[in-house]
Every structure is written in C-alpha cells, then in structure tokens.
What does this fold into?
Amino acid sequence: MHDVNWWLMALSFVLGLLLTFAFTIRRVKREVPETAAFAGRGPGLRAEGAAAAGAAAAGGAAGAKFAGRERGPTSATEFAEVGESGPYGVGSARAAAGGSGPSGWTVKGNEDSMLYHTPESPSYAQTIAEVWFIDEESAERGGFTHWHERGRKR
Amino acid sequence: MDFVIQWLWCLLAFVVGSVVAWLITVVSIRRTSKEEALADLPGSREIGAR
It folds into this structure.
C-alpha cells in the first residue's frame, strides 16, 4: 500500500462516482403517455376526436352525445343519462374535463392502471378520475381492480 | 507485477466510488409506482380534453 499512486486512486474514485450518477440519475420529463384509447375517448374532447371515438370505442355513444359542447357533462342529470350506457356499463360515467364526477358518486376509476379508488384509498385525493362509478360493484363489473388488491399482489 | 497491483487499486477505487454514488441515489430518490407518478402529474387528465 506504500507505493500506491493516490492521485490515480482519487481519479478512479471520482470517475466511478460520476459514471454511476450519469447512468442512474436522469431528469424527469413530465409527460403523459398518449394512447389511442386515452386520446380518442372522453366527453370533453374536441369534435373530431369524438367523431373518431364514436365509430369505434364503447364509450362512443357518450362521446358523440357531448361532441358539440365545449366541456363535458356537468350536472348530475347529464351524468345519469350517460350512466345508462356508460363507458364501463351501467353505473359508470366518463369524468368531466377537470376530472369531476356526478354528485354522490364516490368511486374514482383510473384507466391507466385499471384500478378504482374508494375514499379510503391513500391516493384518492390526488387521483384525477377518468371514469366515475356509482359503487364498487359497478367498478368490478367494468373490469377495474380494487386499489388495495393490486398492492397486495405486488 | 507492480503495474497490475496499481491497476487493481484503481479498480477498487472505481468500484468504491460507484457504490457510494449508488447508495446516495438509492437514499435520496424515492421509488414510486407508475400510478402514483401519473397521479402526481399536474392536470394530466385534462391533456387532449380541450
């Protein structure tokens, strides 16, 4: 250990440090993955998007219904209409542009993760709903998983 | 032989440097799930809806 070149050692140490940082740390780009399903559906979207969605998607009926409007449905009665043939069956409704839902509906659905959040969920407040469900049964019927179940599976 | 020993010491220093950097990274950057990351995005659900 007496004939070690300390300068070279320090250089190697710094090199290892910097290279590892370069490979492990990257600036976060805040982007939303754009999928066809996400862009094409939803009541508050632009008219041409709604027209395309109306042809193919299951939620097309709801999409076309509100295609002429600037924003999505806002009143509970409008949501109730949609609920008849909601994007995920009876008891489901597409969220308005701001993520708001019909009053009295408490279950939030996230299409990216296919999870539904009840008010007990720790991420309930920060989840911006894409779909609202009247109750948990409707969410289960629509193919969504309880937020807690997924956590246990991991 | 001296050269090889020097080289090994340098390699060791490099590895130690990497381990230190990795530890700093793991301690300082919290792991997050895809769902949480998406939920944290400000106004993500409004994109494409206007």
About this structure: The first helix of chain A runs from residue 6 to 24. Chain A touches chain B at residues 3-5, 8-21, 24-25, 30, 32, 34, 38-39, 42, 44-46, 49, 72, 95, 97-99, 110, 112-113, 115, 123, 126-130 (CB under 8 Å).
